[in-house]
Amino acid sequence: MIDRTDPRMPRLKELIEQKAVLRGEFTLASGLKSKYYFDGRKVTHDPEGIALIGALVNEVLEQVEIEAVGGPATAANPIVTAVQIASFTKMQRPLQGFYIRGERKSHGTQNLIEGNLPRTKGARVAIVEDTVSTGGSLLAAIEAVEAAGCKVAKIVALVDRRQGGGDALRAKGYDYEALFEADSKGNIL
User: Fold this and answer.
1) Overall pTM surpassing 0.70 (yes/no)
2) Domain with 17 in it
């Protein structure tokens, strides 16, 4: 469970508000129109931002029995790596990492999932993501991980736009949390 009283949360929120919330007219991956856009890469590629994200998400994942952490390419990639570094640094339980492509490669290994997804059937993994709107892309990534034989034990997002994605994940039985939520005007809560 996310510790909302953690003293690092206000600083991460401030970084998100300063760097990642853009105002204007945008079309989201879901096809929905929005007056704001959350560009998580502005925070996940900021040294302070990604250090905070890695530490906070790792602390959430320490509460769950998992072997690896992964997420949809490309937005989740820096989060996955930061969590791996945080888990290794604490040496409690170094996590393997992986990412799920939007579509299978047409060359080389032709993998849909890259990195170190556990090969043991039923292995428990966590999925991370920078933004959840309707949850469509996240559900597609989860489907690929489950088709590879793993069980998704936890899902953590940086920001939930409160557009039904979190509810859809919970309705399917997933343990889902977001560090922050955004209201319909893009205010980070």
Assistant:
1) yes
2) 9-181
